[in-house]
Amino acid sequence: GPGGEIVFENALYTANLWAVDPAGGPAKDASWPSTRYTNEPEFSPDGMRVAFASNRDGTDAIYVADVGGDARRVGFSEGYRYLRPHWSADGRSVYAVRTLAAASPVSPSEAVRISLAGGPADVLAALGPAVSDAREGPGGILYWGERAGDAMQLMRAPLGDLARSERLPLPLVSQYQLSGMRLAFTQPHLEKVTLCRLETLACAPLKIEIAPTGALHWALTPRALYGRIVAHETLQLARFDLGTQAATRQWDILPSGAGSSIAVTADERRIMVAKEQDPAIDLMIAR
What we know:
- By secondary structure, this protein is mostly beta strands.
- It is 0% helix and 50% strand.
- It is built from no helices and 25 strands.
- It is globular.
């Protein structure tokens, strides 16, 4: 301004987690609400806990909460952001990806394993400095995405010998999920989900139609795929049966936000959805 004033916009972005009753619908209140950003939920193997990412206490960190209980921060350290939590098979630790808080285009992105018993995160250096996502599969195998522009190349290695890595003969993916002996993935700019058998890596695209911009917003269970669909000109959560590949149920809630937004237990008795609120934007003046 003429007197040295500065006029600017101050934007507040908020996202929270919402439980969805499979037989009913979304809960009336958010689970573990905050005034900041919460996303990337995942249920523990026994379905009794949820891991998620949130910046509610400042920098992005990993939180773990009992269903119906309180949340506690488990993945954090000075100077780093922690994202994309995934449970270990035994439920005793969580894998995540950490980056420098003061990120730049060449910042390393490392996989870490966070013990829920406490102590510093174990950096999985053998996976390299360009990890987008890391999760434990069946048979003691770790799967991870190696960053390739805005997509990732899928890799795997035995947990006991992470240096013995194998590049999977699959295209670049934007999102992937593991459930039992199955791997599913979406590709950049495509709305189809491809389903593979882990033993053979034989793959075939599903006939399931997920909504445009839904490449990150889906989850795989042994019997179903949950994703976003367009219904009555709005986006909603839907369940698709993997056998018939038809929609069998839908709920009036919009999974949204940065990163993955849908979590479902293996038995499909619990669903958790991340939902972004409309941003609150104020016009400010500083003198």
